[in-house]
Amino acid sequence: MGVLIEGGTVLTPRGPIDDGALAINGDQIVAVGRADDLRRSFDRYDRLRATGCLVMPGLINSHTHCAMTLFRGYAEDMPLMDWLEKKVWPAEVKLTPSDIELGAELGAYEALLSGTTTLNSQYFYSDDGSEVHAFIKTGIRAVVGHGFFESTKEEGLRLTERMAERWHGAQGGRIRISVNPHAPYSTGPDAYVDAHRLTNELNEKLGERGKVIMHTHVAEAHDEARRVEEIFGVSAHGGSVAYLDSLGVLSGHVVAAHAIHVSDEEVSTLRKRNVAVALNPVSNLKLAMGVAPYSKLRASGIRMGLGTDGPASNNSLDMFESTKVLALVQKGWLGDPTALPAREVFDLATSDGASAIGWGDQIGALAIGYKADVVVLDLRNIQSLPLYDPYSHLIYSTKSTSVRDVFVDGKQLVENGMIVGLDYESFFNKVERTKNSLLSRVGQ
Predict the structure, then answer these.
(1) Coil vs helix vs strand at 317
(2) Crossing angle for the helix pair 153-167 and 189-206, to the nearest 10 degrees
(3) Which pTM value belongs to this model?
(4) What is the pLDDT of residues 30-78, one digit of tens each?
(5) Which one, of 159, 151, 215, lies nearest residue 182 by Cα?
(6) Which residues of 258-269 are buried (b: 16+ CB within 10 A; e: fewer)?
(7) In order of start, what are the domains of the chain with their CATH numbers?
(8) Average pLDDT, integer, range 148-173
(9) CA 362 from centroid of its chain's CA atoms
């Protein structure tokens, strides 16, 4: 039997429906409309009352490293390369597959509790434990990739192919696999060419199970192009985007995380190649990387989504926080309070984000035939009242603590603000033990 979510304000692609309803059957949305109409048509469905609530599509986190939740607060107030080379990378080599799986499980629960139903995450894979295993266990929707560097490119490409054969399209299509060269400064030109070729091959072979994307960091640091030249002995004079384009690896399959330091010519190249950009305003500010030129990217018609980056550089997987920071920073940066209106930010975090990661035909909207990835926000609390415009409310006023219920593929994973079926105390103890064990392994 299906579920009828009734009585709330339902946010549809055409706008909000007051006293609306949403019918779920299996993993799909089968009806959206006025509550009075749907009650008659779906009178045998289970009822979930949403009076005083906003009913919205699940948020799409278009760039993160979910397993790095285990490093939340571990390395603070450091420049990017010191952060990576002195703290993060030395600790990562000490991680076990079970550590990675636990970190991803913790991150998936955090994401769900803050209204995110889809993650595009890059980390490290093992058959013995990984983000894939955690995402299958927790029920969240995800694109998952194994990040590889110049020193691990051969193994990384082999692992990616094996991952895709085993997991792409798993769980009724809820899990997809991506190809993840880390960044131009850490992964050489031949590896990018091989990654591009593998992406195309996997799409030809497995594309009926869902699109395979290539997910990589691009133009995050102001001196990135110089580092590429110094490390790999190649020309990156026109910037990281121009360099990757010279390799012939940019296409509509690519999701470029960050894209902060890009010239006008590179913006044009991104649009010409149909590359999608994942914006990460919170981590960019925290690491003092800069501010992505959103207005230029938008004016060029580039596909964009919104991400948190990893919890080690953001400290949070809270997409509500990211939406507000993005809007405020762009307004302040441009000196224009009308820049980046709330509805536009909402779309970035939902339908646009779904399109950016190659899933826009199935998720990111409350519409008939779409996957039943649904979030119910309870606005009957002091910090949420009164409500005027639901979109501005979501971006500027709503806190993730208002998330009451979350469905992914029609399955309820959060009920009354709690993860369904999770033994919280046991899980908390496991995380603490793992943290202490990791600290002993890295000598701290």
Answers:
(1) coil
(2) 10
(3) 0.97
(4) 999 999 999 999 999 999 999 999 999 999 999 999 999 999 998 888 8
(5) 215
(6) bbbbbeeebbeb
(7) 3-57+366-419 (2.30.40.10), 59-356 (3.20.20.140)
(8) 97
(9) 16
